[in-house]
Amino acid sequence: MTRTPYAGPAVELRHAVKTYGEGPSAVTALDDVSIAFPAGSFTAVMGPSGSGKSSLLNCAAGLDRPTSGSVVVDGVELTSLDDRSLTRLRRNRLGFVFQAFNLLPTLTVRQNVLLPQELGGRRTRAGAVDQLLERLGLAERADHYPSELSGGQQQRVAIARALLTEPAVIFADEPTGALDTTAAGEVLALLRESASRQTVVMVTHDPVAAAYADRVVFFADGRIADVVDTPGPEAIATRLTQLGARPAPHSTMTGATR
Ligand SMILES: Nc1ncnc2c1ncn2[C@@H]1O[C@H](COP(=O)(O)OP(=O)(O)OP(=O)(O)O)[C@@H](O)[C@H]1O
């Protein structure tokens, strides 16, 4: 079946509200949030701890459902999908990269990259994994195990795994949180490069990491406090401090930016 390309934003939240709990102890993590992530863009989401970044990511990626409002991903209204269809859309159209690389230690690099496809019972085009590993500088590592790789290499394997299905959107949650400055720079450059084909939405506490994005969305108290196009790390750090965030413990502010 051919799919008509969808011309709208890759991800859009409309009046999204996310409330945890009920009554007086209820917490509003997303307070009427409307935002669109254009196709092919790279957006960093920042804000103080508890400001709603993970809630945004989880709702935008269909890992959680908003209490009210709507989420449209790649032209599909997520709130209208049952759990099975949502899982299928996540598998086929979305990629995920987390701080913990989430690789299986008993599988090689190649097997780790292929695992989601195989679990989903799908075939992979011959040569697709090798091409991807080549592109990500991992060609020599295809038959190695995660314990034989550096942190940066492991995260690149996780990115290869996320890219294999050529998803519409990559959601990254603190992808450089466990990496040193050099490895973080390599991973961020890869995400940047991917953003020409995929849309990337990345939650980070690190102003240097955020400076790789096309724009930074700042959250405070469950609302969007600011959206800034291509700010530098210093401007990002200043805005974060104004919003009440403490400096990130693992910030790579001392390292080079793009
Ligand atoms: N499952 C949950 N149950 C109850 N409250 C929750 C739950 N998840 C998040 N919250 C609350 O919702 C608010 C927003 O949380 P969220 O995790 O989205 O923030 P965050 O910006 O990602 O924070 P951090 O930077 O610390 O990860 C916080 O007050 C948090 O305590």
UniProtKB/TrEMBL annotation:
Its GO CC terms?
Answer: membrane protein complex; plasma membrane
Give UniProt keywords alphabetically: ATP-binding, Nucleotide-binding, Transport
Stored Pfam families: ABC_tran (PF00005)
Query: Would you say which domain of life the source belongs to?
Result: Bacteria
Q: InterPro entries from the entry? A: AAA+_ATPase (IPR003593), ABC_transporter-like_ATP-bd (IPR003439), ABC_transporter-like_CS (IPR017871), ABC_transpr_LolD-like (IPR015854), MacB-like_ATP-bd (IPR017911), P-loop_NTPase (IPR027417)
What Gene Ontology molecular function terms does this protein carry? ATP binding; ATP hydrolysis activity; transmembrane transporter activity
Keyword DNA damage assigned: no
Q: Does the keyword DNA repair apply?
A: no
Domain named ABC transporter: which ranges?
11-246
Which PANTHER family does this UniProt record tie to the protein? ABC TRANSPORTER RELATED, IMPORT ATP-BINDING PROTEIN
- The protein in question is named Putative ABC transport system ATP-binding protein
What is the source species?
Kribbella solani
